[in-house]
Amino acid sequence: VGSRPLLYQLSKAGKLCVPAMNVNDSVTKQKFDNLYCCRESILDGLKRTTDVMFGGKQVVICGYGEVGKGCCAALKALGAIVYVTEIDPICALQACMDGFRVVKLNEVIRQVDIIITCTGNKNVVTRDQLDRMKNGSIVCNMGHSNTEIDVASLRTPELTWERVRSQVDHVIWPDGKRVILLAEGRLLNLSCSTVPTFVLSITATTQALALIELYNAPEGRYKQDVYLLPKKMDEYVASLHLTTFDAHLTELTDDQAKYLGLNKNGPFKPNYYRY
Amino acid sequence: VGSRPLLYQLSKAGKLCVPAMNVNDSVTKQKFDNLYCCRESILDGLKRTTDVMFGGKQVVICGYGEVGKGCCAALKALGAIVYVTEIDPICALQACMDGFRVVKLNEVIRQVDIIITCTGNKNVVTRDQLDRMKNGSIVCNMGHSNTEIDVASLRTPELTWERVRSQVDHVIWPDGKRVILLAEGRLLNLSCSTVPTFVLSITATTQALALIELYNAPEGRYKQDVYLLPKKMDEYVASLHLTTFDAHLTELTDDQAKYLGLNKNGPFKPNYYRY
Amino acid sequence: VGSRPLLYQLSKAGKLCVPAMNVNDSVTKQKFDNLYCCRESILDGLKRTTDVMFGGKQVVICGYGEVGKGCCAALKALGAIVYVTEIDPICALQACMDGFRVVKLNEVIRQVDIIITCTGNKNVVTRDQLDRMKNGSIVCNMGHSNTEIDVASLRTPELTWERVRSQVDHVIWPDGKRVILLAEGRLLNLSCSTVPTFVLSITATTQALALIELYNAPEGRYKQDVYLLPKKMDEYVASLHLTTFDAHLTELTDDQAKYLGLNKNGPFKPNYYRY
Amino acid sequence: VGSRPLLYQLSKAGKLCVPAMNVNDSVTKQKFDNLYCCRESILDGLKRTTDVMFGGKQVVICGYGEVGKGCCAALKALGAIVYVTEIDPICALQACMDGFRVVKLNEVIRQVDIIITCTGNKNVVTRDQLDRMKNGSIVCNMGHSNTEIDVASLRTPELTWERVRSQVDHVIWPDGKRVILLAEGRLLNLSCSTVPTFVLSITATTQALALIELYNAPEGRYKQDVYLLPKKMDEYVASLHLTTFDAHLTELTDDQAKYLGLNKNGPFKPNYYRY
């Protein structure tokens, strides 16, 4: 989810000494590891740590990228009332059309039961905001690293930390207010949930194919730069996993392939296609 | 929705004599004019023409691109049982994860109540398949042009056409079976529904900004080629429409912008980002 | 939907001179004519009259009975942000668990784009509240009669009425604000939508069976009172309509029927069962 | 969920020696402990035991009562393809309208990944059917007792049981096929999930109020029979829990109460109302 891909920085600085494949942004990785996987792991992570009931809860989700979209869809489906914060107007408009109110965190901080960060940014939830949260509210991170929630700011003498079970801390204010912090602000999906084998398989297959491609590529195909996975390989990874669902692909007729200007075996979409 | 963009063909053939902007593939156009708009117009178009009840109906949707995704989401939400056909394994896998069985049309042709084409292809529904549809079933096109359903094949002497109301024909087989063909196979959303002013506004703004950009661009910025709308403009179009929803964007702090390596005013995403 | 069933009043007053069957409260009538039918007709009625886009719209629905539940589910599924008003704490709690904020109308009147009444009550939307609605907002009634919105209060000299198309009036305030009133406050689903033949069939079958039962019943089975449809008949109506959906019912084995203390042919539920 | 309430049997046999209150069938109990609670615990129970990914999975749910409705809604929302089996035509028709194919178990037994029983019946899944399940499929019970799946039939010499973790057994066929049996066929929601404190509070409040009512009731109000909780108490339990959600109830005006023929403080619905 991170927003400052190191490889692109190296490449820009002319310091990348081998070709690299950005598998993180292949379609299957993005949609499966992020959208579809997080749609489930947010529920799983919250239940295993807090046993919270989702129905009727007010939740704010910071960031409406693939991870945020997954979290929002799951919690809305289970009866939570979900608010979204965004910095990007396109993602914000998507949130509107998907039925979420787009707010600044300060507008809802006093009323929400759960805050979930999915931004790739830092200090998205500040000490000042944590001070204003309700007693018993939950705060956790689905984004990246452990910087999205300013956890460091909670390690001050006037606050008491109480470890209530593995990965669950109650941070207690002088007036007795408790905020439930999960995984000390690290990734909930990695710390308190599991990654389904199906998603691991997609990710591992993608990585293996990328390595094989880089190894087998004729000299000169790849320079010392960062490349996206060739679309045909992305499609190949997907096709290998369709049998799991007993899904039956339709084949183009020769006539249709000609009409569409496509090879019958793909790739089926232009590079800029968004899925 | 079309799959053989003429401008790209001209460009490839070296016959494009001016720079061109592919506004159709800007994010706001794709998501709003296709996904979000079709999510509503499929319901509207079917109701205005046939008054069909969606609950419990079996529907097959050919193509799981933006249009197909919109149609599937709407009909599933209203209690229809939806099947998907796809040629592209990535889209097929998305359909699986969204809860749709991916089938070949022939597997479900005898049982479905409604067929909707959203492919950009031709002859997606053939005469042979129309022959096997149930009495009273509905067939319509949300994709492009009027070639997705092989309507020409229905103009044979043994079949009777009965116009029951504007845009609605009953095609009657010798045994009395009726198939309800909407808009003679032309686009349902254009023929039998309306485009919301909100979506028109997004599309028109995008087009106007693209023209202004091409007109104002310094000599040499654009060659005789096809360009995608600069992301900042796409974001600008979105931001102009947020007030409609009373949506409040969060602004990056200087510190956050630096951490993310972004300009505080965008663009906020790399070019390959899929939304 | 009405809340003061005349037959029950007559019965209570000892003025009912024949046995009567309350078919309106049979399960199939309530769920199909109200919940499932309104889930579709609210969308249809709004589209045909106003072409409004649902995505991102803020909507308040007054009343969370069967009709309100149907309207809420449909609009939420299409990306609207839905608020609910209720007088009954049980229905209010259901709304919470289904993901809707339960508010008083005055809390949201200035921000909503659409008001829909589904209460069976009168003066649910008052002139004072209509005065505070946004320019361009829509108000309509899915409940009963034409009293839920205080339409009479809008017929005052300072307001101008402009009929923009059949069933659609713009009521114009002196400052130019327009509120879009549908069907002059009468039932939107009857005035601006259609009732699917499937639902008509269920309702008509229920009524016919009730009449046959009353006619054929042995002397003394029914007194001069109001009766609910015998559950077996309700089940019979449902079973007659299952073939439409190619639905296959499971039959109890003798052993299972004995275990459950049920007749293999039903009725399958106690009378107080809520479905 | 049980289908043979002992108290009603005792009452029918004239053997009930004190008045009894059927709190299990109060609205708040039915909807919260069954529908809303199981909507979450089915996901939780499956994740904690098997880490299964829901997206794309084919699931059959036996029984479409409150528990089945909750399970279906949750799994559909997370991208599973859900089939329903039913003996009751009314519930079967509800399943159709909610977008589920109603089938006999034998029609889908070979293709489903997960079987969930929610019937209150016995031998809903037989050894013969377990023999035909796919390798790696999961079978569990959300209904009642431990009789819904014929677990006893799996304790035969040719099958090997392997305990893979607490509450999870692999039953291994001679050909190596494994079926994953959860909680040895006992209730998944009680064995492998938790009951939210909110639901406990509703249930406990209902039980306490019922006891107080029986204790305080004037002589003669209750005979040696089984009674449903008076509706006003059901409404009172609900109203006590609304503050959790910051839900604001609307109050009837005197005029409206008179129009509806209701007391302003409730009860608000006739006894046969289904919610």
UniProtKB/TrEMBL annotation, chains A, B, C, D:
Residues 34-195 form the S-adenosyl-L-homocysteine hydrolase NAD binding domain. GO terms for cellular component: cytosol. Belongs to the adenosylhomocysteinase family. The keyword NAD applies. It comes from Oryzias sinensis. PANTHER family: ADENOSYLHOMOCYSTEINASE, S-ADENOSYLHOMOCYSTEINE HYDROLASE-LIKE PROTEIN 1. This is Adenosylhomocysteinase like 1. The keyword DNA damage does not apply. SUPFAM superfamilies: Formate/glycerate dehydrogenase catalytic domain-like (SSF52283), NAD(P)-binding Rossmann-fold domains (SSF51735). Its cofactor is NAD(+). GO terms for biological process: one-carbon metabolic process; S-adenosylmethionine cycle. Keywords: NAD, One-carbon metabolism.
